[in-house]
Amino acid sequence: MTKTVNIEKLDRLVLWLIGAILVYSAVIFVAAYLSGVHMGTWVWDRHQNQFSWYSRPIFMIPAAYYAYRRKLYHVFGLMALLATSLFWFDAPTTVSPTVSAYLQWEERLFFTNTSKLPLVALTLSVIIFLFLLFYAFWQRNVWYGLVVINAGTILKIIVSIAFGQEAGMASIMPSLTSLLIINLFAWVLYKRRPKPSPPQ
């Protein structure tokens, strides 16, 4: 009983923390808007900070955990944090040519392209990926969830390289790093799982 109460308290604390960070995100966003900067450029410049590229496991791992526990508010809250983390960090003073080329390729493909098809395809792909991922954990099928996140990440790398060519190479390291952390975390949990009792 005490363990259940402590978990519920932790769940509420996580929700409060998510809310506080979302408020912070809204404050810096509104402050930037009131300063008169071009918001698209402001977000894009800050997205060049690679902290926002490598921070994905911080959101995906607990979101999968809360999907497993069927806590919908936590899942949506963590995904909102993932989206707003694009502009949490200050724009870097220097940007590597590889990162700059990759972001320019993304901008041309998804935002300045006269065809909206790539942007629509990207949006649908992200929605389908997240639905399959969290549905797997919601159904308590951890192995299927791992297959989805591994396949989705590898597919993202393949698409980036196929269409972005040399510029798409910048997606490899952040994607594989995220995948390594997530799979390592899953492996640790698997090794720490309770062992079944031997038959009497």
Summarize the structure.
The protein has nine helices and no strands. It is an all-alpha fold.
What does this structure look like?
The longest helix has about 35 residues, at about 1-35. This protein is globular. It starts with a helix and ends in a 9-residue tail after the last helix. It has one domain (about 1-190). The protein has helices spanning about 1-35, 40-45, 50-55, 55-70, 70-85, 95-110, 115-140, 140-165, 170-190. About 75% of the residues lie in helices and about 0% in strands. By secondary structure, it is mainly α. Keywords: Membrane, Transmembrane, Transmembrane helix.
Jot down its keywords.
mainly alpha; transmembrane helix; membrane; 200 residues; globular; 9 helices; transmembrane; single chain; 76% helix
